[in-house]
Fold:
Amino acid sequence: MGTAIDALRERMATYYDLTMTGSLLTWDQLTIMPINGGPARAHQIKTIEMMSHQLLVGDETARLLDAAEAEVASGKGSEVEQCLVRVTRRDFERAVRVPGELVGEIAKAAADGYAVWTDARANDDFPAFLPALEKNIELQKRYIDCFDVAESPYDVLIDNYEEGLTSAEISAVFDGIKPYLRPLIDRVVDRQEAVSDEFFRKPFSLAGQEEVGLWTAERLGFDPASWRLDPTVHPFQSSMSIQDIRLTTRYNENDLFDSLFSTVHEFGHGIYEHQISMDLERTPLGGGCSMTLHESQSRFWENMIGRSREFAGLLHPALARVFPEEMKGSTPETTYKAMNVMRPSLIRVEADELTYGFHIIVRYELEREIIENGMKASDLPEAWNARMKQYLGIDVPNNRLGVLQDVHWSAGSIGYFPTYFLGSILAAQIWKKMAGDLPDLRDLIAAGDFAPIREWQREHLHRYGRMYTPKETIEKVVGGPLDPQPYIGYMTAKVNSLYGPAA
Amino acid sequence: MGTAIDALRERMATYYDLTMTGSLLTWDQLTIMPINGGPARAHQIKTIEMMSHQLLVGDETARLLDAAEAEVASGKGSEVEQCLVRVTRRDFERAVRVPGELVGEIAKAAADGYAVWTDARANDDFPAFLPALEKNIELQKRYIDCFDVAESPYDVLIDNYEEGLTSAEISAVFDGIKPYLRPLIDRVVDRQEAVSDEFFRKPFSLAGQEEVGLWTAERLGFDPASWRLDPTVHPFQSSMSIQDIRLTTRYNENDLFDSLFSTVHEFGHGIYEHQISMDLERTPLGGGCSMTLHESQSRFWENMIGRSREFAGLLHPALARVFPEEMKGSTPETTYKAMNVMRPSLIRVEADELTYGFHIIVRYELEREIIENGMKASDLPEAWNARMKQYLGIDVPNNRLGVLQDVHWSAGSIGYFPTYFLGSILAAQIWKKMAGDLPDLRDLIAAGDFAPIREWQREHLHRYGRMYTPKETIEKVVGGPLDPQPYIGYMTAKVNSLYGPAA
Structure:
């Protein structure tokens, strides 16, 4: 007879297979599925979610967990297996609290909500979306009711994306940054003429954008034997296994950099999943550790690497090759500046590095209002517009460009948004640490030699998957907790360099 | 409390979701998955199969089936529900009769056999394949032992693909055709100069083939809201639901008609799945009725419609538009003839409409020899070559072009082959019946107006899905049992028209 650890590992391998199968159902739905397949697909996703939930919360899991924990306590099991037992216990405890029926309702409401949102956004019709949104919020509140609330009910939702993080901790970090961010934004607003993307405001053929996007991804580390890149509405990364990484991007003829930086961003997510140790495949450890850590990787590749002067120098000749007419008269510096225009704007996913933080702070604060203070969903458009005015100084002309812009709430994801900005903050910490270890970091980017950068990430972060908690993992990669200072320093230096120092 | 019928229906809806999810895992693997995703995908497919098998054979299914049958006996349930109970009973009985261990052995031998066969075929090495083939045959015989044999043990295997059909019935149909087929083949061999595809033996760009293929599929009834068409190695059709139909084809620069007729063939399978009544979605009735019925639809669209003079007339201008240079000097008649070259050849999947039947008869008779008469697998090459000489008058130069050409036996599929030819035979019956109901059938094809043809198929066949047995369903669509006469008449008329009447 094998050990309980072995039996638990085998059971969780089946669970992992179901999870990855669910990823494929969703990836396919969002990327290539014929639209009329939607209703049946919602059932399929719900069924896989229910079956994986049943597997996770089953009596057999409880029995094996108890026995495996006893084995671990008596010194049995490798380190991976010990981590597997810990993470399975966490996932189990979170799942047993939630009735299978509620899990199924949440999944179905998410699929239905997505379909409704797609139309509502296209038609700028918030009232059409409202019932689906209210349903999602109600289900999230029922989800929270399954748990003991320590400080804030919102923490229960945050914990889904970032184990152990609280809204109090998030507010402390965001509040540390806010006083620095607003003056920087005021400065770039005052000096808009300093940096321009006017040169790039013209059509670039979609075929050419695809070519440049794939060229770029391949320079970074994309390999068709293990990766795909497909067009979709809302760019995302998804994996079906450590060796099957899928990126999506979107192509807009009038916005070359939108597709390009979406691809680079999603590559950052993908390389994290792809460099997890193969020892962790088919275990609950075989994924990224948390959303903040995940987003730190996508932001790192998108901003620290992709929007650097050195990367602009690497990219410029490729653009000139694919778009010889369009690029006539441009220089690497034109390209660098155009990539780094900073300007308050309406759409989060098109926001620049500097103003992005406030887009998140708006969403974070609204989520707190809804979950902690009982704000009604019908009040969201007005509250949204007020905060956009307050933080970014801009007027929101309609809901399509406002509260309807993001997919997350349509799929019932609440508590996810703050991790985006925390990712940027952590990325700045990682950049500082990596620059200490790789003194020629900027030369490597200029030369397009990304292998040492990937290897550093693999060694210090990627390979661990979910072996350790997010806080332990952040400690491993940057040697301390989340810290806003490197981000403030990085952002201030970048604004100084592009727009000039404070008067 | 709902009825047992309701509970069974709900349970089988989950089963259906798992089956469709398995379809997506396989479609993705064969079509667009990055190659390195293979090992993890194999685990995912196995897990979904295991979970759907457990759901089907579980004690709860047995209990619900007994109770639902009692309800049906007392007059409860709609017609759909009564059919659902019957079909679930059949699927359940076939699944529980076979011990899980034997199912596992068969699956493993199939996977091993496939790997061995791939190499053996490449190296023309039958002895290397023989042990795997013998293992598959032995396991199929043990499979047969799980069932009560009425007439022939081979019938147990045929029943996997065509419920209720016996080898005695198949032989009666094939024996009715054989005396007519051989003289027709002799005639086309004597008059090879009458019909030529020489004009088309040149490169046609892959992009152009894709364009013509999609144009053709859209004329037939392909709608991107519910369908996809993707390139792959071996063309197939797969569906993820009634509203999500996926066709694959392959593009060979030097064989325009290969991709085109693969697309039309797979469209025939797809329109069958697509026109099943939506009432049957998420039930075990929501699929094609049998392999013969499915193949009758693909052959109908490929041969009766696609290879008709009227269709050539429709297609010719489209080809001339997409390939203006290549098509210079051609006429609709050039196109029609090139689509219909008949000539004995070695490879089944490249065979023309006329000689195809004998490729199947060879395989069918050899399967009978092995299962009914104890012929040894080691005798297959000699027996194969002798029958190819006898029926098609050709010498088989090696086993790669002979007994090793098909994948089926390597994966333990025995009893499948006859349904291919039975599909052609049934397609001719359907053509005759449809022509009686739609007197302007040929005009409709010439005009590219396929809606009345699809509607006839929907009304008389497609909508029923698996509600009735294959024999009942064939009765519904053609008003009688399988009958070789319409096929003989159709084939004779076509040979007469292309190669001239008998001397």
About this structure: Chain B touches chain A at residues 13-14, 17-18, 20-21, 24-25, 28, 32-37, 39-41, 43-44, 46-48, 50-51, 224-228, 240-245, 281-282 (CB under 8 Å). The radius of gyration of chain B is 23 Å.
